[in-house]
Amino acid sequence: MKIAVVGTGYVGLVTGTCFAETGNTVTCVDIDANKVNKLNSGKITIYEPGLELLFERNIKQGRLFFTTNLAEGIKDAKIIFLALPTPPGEDGSADLKYILGVASDLGPLLKDYTVVIDKSTVPVGTADKVKERIAAKANVEFDVVSNPEFLREGVAVDDFMKPERVVIGTSSAKARKIMETLYAPFVRQGNPLVFMDERSAELTKYAANSFLATKITFMNEIANLCELVGADVDSVRKGIGTDSRIGKRFLFPGIGYGGSCFPKDVQALAKSSSDVKYDFRILEAVMKVNEDQKTILIPRVKDFYKGDLKGKTFALWGLSFKPHTDDIREAPALYNIEELLKAGAIVKAHDPESMENVKGILGDKIQYAQNPYEAAEGADAIFIATEWPEFRTPDFEKLSSALKAKVIFDGRNLYDLPQMKELGYTYFSIGRETIYG
Questions:
Q1: What's the predicted TM-score (pTM) here?
Q2: Closest by alpha carbon to 12, among 156, 196, 134, 188?
Q3: One of 18, 28, 226, 261 is an active-site residue; which one?
Q4: pLDDT digit string, tens, across residues 210-258
Q5: Is the distance from CB of 216 to CB of 293 less than 8 angstroms?
């Protein structure tokens, strides 16, 4: 099948590469000439585990192409995916200018029946708007389908190749048949293709992400309460996680959620609700709690140093919003860096993948280290913002020698309390007893 994917961000590049891997011919379109040139020269433009191997293989085998020319990119394509950004506006609404702009451009370019698919996360009613834009200039039959992505950065390739479910919103029998054929290789083990109307599919994505954000936020509230009443959040987490109605996932407390999806999608769903005069009170609370949670360790840092952070050096481990990605959008690390710098502290940061992205924003406001121990050299304390696997079992003897003092502020609860006590660390975490070394 001939497929076009408009947009080569996380969603577009993973989508295009994975469809090429199952034998389709895929052309990806992007207006960024520099990015397209890199991709055409075989250089992948995002960090996503497992993607580079598929990317290189499908370019080599002539199934994956890149262009800045929309007409060239969609030529002979029977399926066109729109995988374009929908950044939040000042009021929290999803900005549809990129999607609707491309939809307007597509109309006169369509030469035969085509299925146009919204892969981006978009508000309810977007498929109708896209259809209206295309129809204004189109001279052939087409259908617009909503097919929201459920890709987790860090495991996006596995999520695409072996999806738990595929949600498809369409009221067209013709488009449904094409979508069934397209996704057949990915659901051979019986995971469902869930068909519904377009508006329900659009809302499903927002509902899923907002529910998960709520689950994370609820657990952070429980963690904060644990500290006040002398309970241990790890015990509470295990106690409720074994209840099959609740489940074990998304129950780990920390310094809030970030990334490209949860913050934006919660805001957009709240705004969509407001637009129809519905007060979605839970989401308003989720956003407020998460905003506060991101820097919940900062008051403890200030208290520990009696309000004076001037000249104190912090080894900040982790800059990306989660491990296994270089994405720093809404990363809690950035909020904590801002607070530390504002208080006069020095920050020496290390992250396995995202330091270049942070340099593009912060420049030389902070220092950058090639490994965690270099960051810790001469530091007054460690501040953990992202739970990268390599941070979980450091050489504590080497670490102790590097640090001025054995102090850790852990925003991701990486270490056991008995271990920290035995090693003589002063250890602050989330929802647990503070250990004083």
A1: 0.92
A2: 156
A3: 261
A4: 999 999 999 999 999 999 999 999 999 999 999 999 999 999 999 999 9
A5: no
